[in-house]
Amino acid sequence: MSVREAIARRTRAEPAHVQPEGAHDKLLQAAERLFAAHGYNGVSVRELAAAAGVNSALVAYHFGSKEGLLSEVYRRHCEKLNGERQRLLAEARAKSRPPRLEAVLEAFIRPALEVAGGDEGESFTRLRAVLSGENSDLLDKLVAENFDRSSALFIDALCECLPHLPREQAYWRFHFLLGTIYYTAAGPHRIRALSNGRCDPSDSEAAMRALIPFLAAGLKTPPAKD
Amino acid sequence: MSVREAIARRTRAEPAHVQPEGAHDKLLQAAERLFAAHGYNGVSVRELAAAAGVNSALVAYHFGSKEGLLSEVYRRHCEKLNGERQRLLAEARAKSRPPRLEAVLEAFIRPALEVAGGDEGESFTRLRAVLSGENSDLLDKLVAENFDRSSALFIDALCECLPHLPREQAYWRFHFLLGTIYYTAAGPHRIRALSNGRCDPSDSEAAMRALIPFLAAGLKTPPAKD
DNA sequence: GTCTATACAGTGATAGAC
DNA sequence: GTCTATCACTGTATAGAC
């Protein structure tokens, strides 16, 4: 590990893969696992503390409240997700200017679906669903903090690919695009059951193979006149 | 009130617009309002009972649990929603065989967005978000009970309009379509903020004017070869 | 600073009186 | 049928040990 990485680790509380030592890190690790597995209200502060092997009062001490702990878990996931998105977008731009529409879509979608299907972040997107209905004030704050900048960057990239699309339509269509990603990541049960297992949204590759042409066609079509 | 109406009320517990008399109806009415306003966990059993003017133990007595009460509220909304969808679909079929793709889409989408934007059902779709993250077992059951039949009917209608689309692709694209509707109804904050208010998904007409051409183009495009 | 022990008000649910 | 009293449990706050 370089000196620079070591400093980053110390200041940023990012224990990578080592055994966590303080209650702070142990709680974060347990919360990541349990929130993903059982949702926010599905796990109590006392269970979190027990799983982390620490006293239950420490979640209030270290994170202010149970919500504070959730916010921190959420923030860390978004950090990874957005970093990956921007890396892939830069790659797409490096290949051609303007980038291919399909490449921009993939840069935005792949990290969202893979983080959702991976081991550690398996049910990460479910946390958004939890919050969206429930603590909608907290959710608005978290979404704004973690996604506003990244979303604006992708809307710009889309407009770059679609120079004839009015800005207002770009907003609408970006919104619809978010809906398809969100629903694919958060609610895979539905379509799996309806199709008798023929469509499985937790298969990221299959989902993207179906989703990207669909979105590209919708994005390219001329908007209604009126 | 006619004799027939009185019998219907007694058997069906559908008080229409009259003052509810029993605790059962009073609770349903209060729950519809309060769940929509504050979400599921945002309102306690004691608050529900107080708003209905009945003892708090009666929600367990009449509905088994707080979840049971929610299920009943949910079921009643879905009943209206699906009835309206099928009425509009029949209308579209009456105009042309096969029906126009755009007319089928409108029959499916309009009731979902209007029920979401109306007075009584303003935050109805938020309830789905609540459940989807949280009580995912209950949600799966409710969705299956209330939407499986209606969804299958609309997938059939889509395939009627798109005879060249493989059935598996139809499932995928119906799934994506659901995502755009769901996200538009449940999460209007996001796009409103990003667009500085220029796009407002709670304006059903504007949302449909943007959404239907987008979906129609995506649905019509030939799927990826592979 | 970090942590333990404990207390508090509020939750959904339930047994049993009337 | 209706309601009271009560239960086990929740998230949070705090006093005080180390």
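The domain at 3-64 of chain A is CATH 1.10.10.60 (Arc Repressor Mutant, subunit A).
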